[in-house]
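User: Structure tokens for this complex, please. No commentary.
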Amino acid sequence: MVETGHFALVLAFALALVQALVPLFGARTGNSRMMAVGGPVAVIGFALTVLSFATLATAYASSDFSVANVWENSHSLQPLIYKITGTWGNHEGSMLLWVLILTFFGALVAVFGGNLPATLRANVLAVQGAIGATFFLFILTTSNPFIRMNPAPIEGRDLNPILQDLGLAIHPPLLYLGYVGFSICFSFSVAALIEGRIDASWARWVRPWALVAWMFLTGGIAMGSYWAYYELGWGGFWFWDPVENASFMPWLAGTALLHSAIVMEKRSALKIWTLLLAILTFSLSLLGTFLVRSGVLTSVHAFATDPTRGVFILSMLTLFIGGSLALFALRASRLTAGGLFHPISREGALILNNLFLTTATATVLIGTLYPLALEAITGDKISVGAPFFNLTFGPLMVPLLVVVPFGPLLAWKRGDLLAVAQRLMAAFAAALLAVLVTALFIDGASAFAALGVGLAFWLICGALTDLAVKSGFGTVAPDVMLSRLVGLPRSVFGTALAHFGLGLTTLGIVGTLCFGTEKILSIRVGETVELSGQTLRFEGLYPSQGPNYSEDRGRFALLGADGSSTSEITSAKRLYPVRQMTTTESGIKTIGFSQLYLSLGDQATDGSVVVRLWWKPLVTLIWGGGLVMMAGAAMSLMDRRLRVGAPSRRRKATGAVPAASLP
Amino acid sequence: MTRFSLAALVLLLSLLFAGAAFAVKPDEVLPDPALEARARALSEGLRCMVCQNQSIDESDADLARDLRILVRQRLVAGDSDQQVMDYIVSRYGEFVLLKPRFSLRNALLWGTPILLLLAGGFFIVLTARSRRSTATAALSPEEQAALDKMLAD
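Assistant:
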């Protein structure tokens, strides 16, 4: 019964209002009973949102087409998994998922925030409540997924075929966990501003939340990139599209936040800046939601003709971004600046990181918004596409990547640049070797490509050097070194892993962009095509029937050196009859870290088929690097210092739990 | 009213790039590889006017195909890259360029990254300087006098 869900959503809205107002008032007047209201209300609000989401998901799973939202985005013949993921494969449902995650995080603060100062906890929950209330109101007034239709249609209109993919099950939830995770950092910042002070528990709470949000956002972006790569059928992995930029900006700002929070936690410096970054990061998340949801990207005119949603989101942005920044301007001077340090120090390196990352964020922001603003103000239309970002974002990233290996090796307060440079000699030599090998032994390698490979190796070896130096490689006996390595704080491993992953991603990007090859051709059955040493033979087109689509599968045999078939690649053209949409299912064969990517085109009257073939060297490292970065964040989260209120001794698992029994 | 239901990034992307699997068709490819490479490079900088943020090299819209063929015709006719671009802009306006021109109108767009980097760097240096001077020039005249007195004793 979706009415139950609708009702639960209204209740959750009312509770969010209570959560926004009562604890805030209690904190101002010192009323501990009013402050204590926040916790239970947050938990119950979460439970109600779960109920609301669950009823919608059930309506989707059972194909209840009397619900307009289900009718528009589902079909009875869809496989069950796509029926369920279809719940958030549309505007209304995805907003419900957004608010579900928001209340989940709010409930986490309520449950685990017992060790926070009472007023801070009350204020944080109040800010979370305010965000929640606004989003509930947005859903209820402009994007209600629970509207019924009478009479109920017999059959649904099907989910957009491109979304009928496992990517939809993973990408949006991960992305939203990231977006919304930063709301906690935001709430903590606003709470600190309301109170006019930042205490030790603030930093200890904000950094792990930033890490969690960053980890999920990294995964969400990497997954989205891979999904677009294989689903859209032409092998691009990043398009500098406004929609992608919308998720990339919070990631860049969040990365800066992650690094400045380290300085704040360790050295209690950069407090005000960290606070501002936390506000900006979530503001960019909200802006991303606005850009994607309001339709302003599709066209400024579409936005003007149906402005209800857009205007609501715009007012929400003004309220939260404007409000928090005004509060910041008013209160930031009250916060005391912290520790002193020399420019050549870990702090100095992290400030450099922040300078470049925030400039990069602003570059992406202006590139995304400039055409919109120009058109709104002057009516002139210009385009800002990939060439702009490559020219501006690229040069900003290179110096940042060059200094990355220095950062973790520099000492706090005052570092010795020369000593660090000496320690990095091996990494530098490896990078130089990579440049030379690339330039001398790979055909057609430009100087740019060689330097790119060198940069990637510099990052990878720099991360390894960090671990080697900190475990005393070369200065102590191997067994001592090993035990030191194991005993290193998890956050040291986390840093090294994340920087290692960054190197892998860089290598993947350079490899794909600089050494990728492509062929467009018409091919007949039995003919072979050769690309970058791989030979394919076209075996023919075979019609096939899926649950809610029909397809023509083009089968290609990958030939070995002796001309015999070693494996098969299939690419298909699918027709989804309900929406009359065709999609291209790309055929991908992973060879080492590289991929052979094949995309099937139209069939000509003479029986030949158009085929586009790419060789994408090291392409999997782009996303593999993202996974390694996520692992780095997870490793960092396991650091004992970050486990708020963790018992002093780690509980050892009693008895061996067989791994297979774990979910 | 047909309304696009946008799930997530990829959904909008999918709408932008739907059916983009075949952009450049085999029959468009020029026989001269050098000329073809130039055509591809130019195509990547030209927007498909009926698509969203998609270059004509990536799009399979008819208009994109017409533009690709036009670019190739101009190249075959002996135009330089700049001449081809100028010709296309004269026909379609600056909107067609994915890389906006360096003009006064776009000064803010191109200037922001470098200005922000400089301003940020300047701010950091200034803050560090003022911090250091306050940290070292800590002794007031009275304190200095008291210190001198103590040292003299």
